[in-house]
Structure to design on (332 residues):
């Protein structure tokens, strides 16, 4: 993609308003050094050097959008207490509207804590309660969604299978957005096998796509053979899901865009080095959605999305990127 064309799209992004709906969480990182093995058990002893925290899950998608879009809203649920205050503070600092994050007494704030030494993840500790929102909370969520929809250019449904996105809520969200002519992009999760309808694009990763299609992953094969395997995969997923497009992230193989009755469009990875894939899928769906909403064709949107993802996997932690970084990568 040429720099001038990308610069034009970035200027269009700055006029867009995007709503992210899904499971919000807090990502914490404990960084340290390992110099010995514990005498209590055969595990490394990590001497803590610093601790960081970032918005995670659907909140990380919003964080990826914030440097590019005019306005970013988040709709989700969280618990009460200092962890929620920390999450909301981080989102406010990024310029993200948090009025749609519904604080519920019966819900626990989802926290993923990663312990990292020498740029390698040693362990992850999850704190979560997985349950659907109450009928009252569903009503509040739908009312908020309807109130913001007239001021929204695109909707992203981000499912981490943590309970917020129920079938009834998803159907209501997609029905309202479709009636308003607003594109809906979806990041599904096999742990929450919902029926997806009225989608513009659905973005599973490779593992999720083959699992959803009930087909075997071909494993380590050439890129040509992998693209060939995506054709029956696409047929199965288009039959299963009501969507115009499929965007499948393929790890070190980049990503593939599928349209009905069309060959797969492959965009090879642009990453020079891969340090951490945390949040790379969030970056992919964020930039693909922005590009589509700005009027890009699906292939151009995939190229922008792939370029952005190649940047964030070269960083450690739940990373994002800036427009300047995207432009600089376009020149290389």
């Amino acid at each position: 993609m040429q720099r001038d064309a990308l610069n034009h799209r970035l200027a269009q992004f700055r006029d867009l308003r995007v709503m992210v709906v899904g499971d919000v969480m807090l990502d914490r990182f404990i960084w340290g050094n390992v110099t010995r093995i514990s005498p209590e058990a055969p595990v490394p002893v990590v001497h803590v050097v610093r601790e960081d925290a970032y918005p995670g899950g659907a909140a990380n998608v919003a964080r990826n959008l914030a440097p590019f879009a005019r306005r970013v809203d988040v709709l989700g649920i969280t618990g009460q207490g200092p962890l929620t205050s920390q999450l909301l503070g981080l989102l406010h600092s990024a310029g993200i509207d948090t009025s749609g994050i519904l604080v519920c007494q019966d819900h626990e704030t989802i926290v993923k804590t990663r312990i990292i030494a020498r740029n390698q993840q040693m362990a992850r500790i999850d704190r979560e309660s997985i349950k659907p929102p109450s009928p009252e909370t569903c009503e509040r969520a739908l009312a908020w969604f309807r109130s913001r929809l007239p001021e929204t250019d695109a909707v992203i449904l981000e499912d981490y299978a943590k309970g917020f996105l129920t079938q009834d809520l998803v159907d209501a969200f997609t029905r309202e957005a479709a009636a308003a002519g607003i594109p809906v992009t979806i990041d599904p999760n096999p742990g929450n096998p919902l029926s997806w309808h009225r989608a513009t694009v659905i973005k599973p990763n490779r593992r999720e796509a083959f699992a959803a299609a009930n087909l075997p992953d071909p494993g380590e094969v050439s890129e040509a053979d992998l693209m060939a395997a995506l054709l029956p995969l696409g047929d199965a997923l288009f039959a299963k899901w009501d969507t115009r497009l499929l965007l499948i992230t393929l790890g070190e193989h980049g990503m593939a865009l599928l349209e009905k009755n069309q060959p797969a469009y492959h965009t090879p990875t642009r990453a020079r080095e891969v340090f951490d894939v945390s949040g790379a899928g969030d970056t992919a769906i964020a930039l693909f959605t922005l590009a589509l909403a700005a009027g890009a064709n699906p292939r151009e949107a995939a190229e922008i999305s792939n370029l952005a993802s190649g940047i964030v996997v070269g960083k450690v932690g739940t990373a994002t990127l800036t427009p300047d970084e995207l432009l600089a990568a376009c020149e290389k």
About this structure: DSSP finds ten helices and 13 strands in the chain. The mean pLDDT is 92. The CA atoms of residues 144 and 258 lie 33 Å apart.
